[in-house]
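pls design
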């Protein structure tokens, strides 16, 4: 079994993660059941060809859409639906695509991600074209464009497309912008760092030209830092620190200018590592991440207090960029998420720290929770078939401390 699966992956260039896919396991399980029923049969007597698979795809598509629309309607009734979208351009043929993902929360409080489109986008990336395409995709799944919130990056075109809707910025993108801009500013203003970075990039270029050199290092040097700048820079400086002695030996033999300040490389690596949990909780969390925006910001600032004084300028740059490009996007819903979370009952520490005064009070948070409850009641009333909106209105909810504690208890469970 292991040999056959390994051969299947290697010969067809599949990722190793394919072995974790339930569909592949279901296929093998079906084979086991066939064998139990029919004995040592010839697979060619049962196997489906391309034509049969092609004919079955429309049926499968229709079945998926029917089930998905049912799930969407349930999510709309619970006000637990959100849409995220992004534009992509491939680096080979330069074709553009618009992906649309619907995120819902089911009755078991599990977050479900459903990519409903990865559509060709051959027209200009204008706000109107984006909105027209997005609207047409959502309509196929009975989702009104103005009846769901959106979370996207902060590109000018998509922000303009969604300017009349409930839109929220992706905080992972904002944090990524803060980190990239801070590195650029540090490079422009700190001559020692700029020189160090140029030397590291030159050494990296030479090392990665030779497989023998790259394989001789204790830790492989990443090729670039473009896709995920935080991770790329951390891995780069970590690899240089761990391979410093070997790199120095290689560079001396070849007459290549090698950085000499190993201590500065370590300090920068450790400072970049301070962002680790922040990025991971915003980018790779399978569950809700709204509460981590404030919590991880608080933790990051505490870690920065421990940075070496040599990095005081970098610390100042990061804080200023956080103030300009990250904190303005924080809204009261981030405070509500923290306030309702059972692990973060004490909110005072998030109200004002390191010069970030959000001017949010406990009264504001209670008012926002009350508004959410009333909004959900109104939506359920409108979507209910057996209730007249004109005849009945939702009662105003009185949010008590007991209700808050109950919400925390349910979240903990």
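designed seq:
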């Amino acid at each position: 079994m292991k040999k056959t699966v390994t051969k299947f992956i290697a010969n067809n260039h599949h990722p190793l993660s394919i072995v974790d896919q339930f569909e592949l396991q279901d296929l093998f399980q079906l084979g086991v059941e066939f064998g139990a029923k029919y004995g040592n049969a010839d697979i060619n007597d049962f196997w489906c060809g391309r034509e049969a698979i092609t004919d079955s795809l429309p049926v499968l598509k229709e079945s998926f859409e029917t089930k998905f629309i049912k799930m969407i309607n349930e999510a709309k009734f619970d006000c637990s639906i959100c849409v995220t979208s992004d534009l992509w351009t491939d680096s080979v043929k330069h074709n553009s695509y618009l992906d649309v993902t619907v995120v819902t929360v089911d009755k078991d409080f599990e977050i479900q991600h459903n990519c409903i489109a990865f559509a060709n986008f051959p027209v200009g990336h204008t706000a109107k074209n984006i909105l027209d395409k997005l609207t047409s995709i959502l309509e196929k799944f009975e989702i009104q464009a103005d009846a769901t919130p959106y979370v996207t990056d902060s590109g000018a075109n998509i922000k303009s497309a969604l300017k009349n809707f409930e839109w929220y910025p992706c905080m992972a993108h904002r944090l990524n912008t803060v980190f990239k801009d801070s590195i650029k500013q540090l490079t422009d203003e700190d001559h020692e760092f700029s020189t160090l970075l140029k030397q590291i990039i030159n050494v990296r270029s030479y090392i990665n030209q030779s497989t023998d050199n790259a394989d001789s290092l204790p830790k492989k040097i990443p090729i670039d830092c473009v896709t995920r700048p935080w991770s790329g820079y951390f891995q780069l400086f970590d690899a240089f620190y761990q391979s410093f002695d070997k790199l120095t030996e290689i560079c001396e033999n070849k007459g290549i200018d090698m950085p000499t300040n190993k201590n500065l490389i370590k300090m920068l690596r450790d400072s970049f590592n301070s962002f680790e949990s922040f990025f991971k909780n915003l980018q790779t969390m399978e569950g809700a991440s709204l509460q981590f925006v404030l919590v991880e910001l608080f933790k990051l600032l505490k870690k920065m207090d421990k940075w070496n004084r040599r990095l005081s300028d970098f610390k100042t740059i990061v804080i200023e960029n956080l103030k300009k490009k990250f904190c303005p996007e924080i809204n009261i819903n981030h405070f509500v998420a923290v306030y309702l979370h059972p692990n973060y009952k004490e909110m005072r520490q998030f109200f004002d720290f390191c010069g970030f005064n959000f001017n949010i009070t406990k009264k504001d948070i209670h008012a926002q929770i009350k508004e959410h409850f009333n909004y959900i009641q109104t939506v359920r009333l409108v979507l209910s078939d057996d209730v007249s909106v004109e005849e009945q209105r939702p009662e105003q909810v009185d949010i008590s401390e007991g209700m808050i504690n109950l919400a925390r208890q349910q979240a903990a469970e």
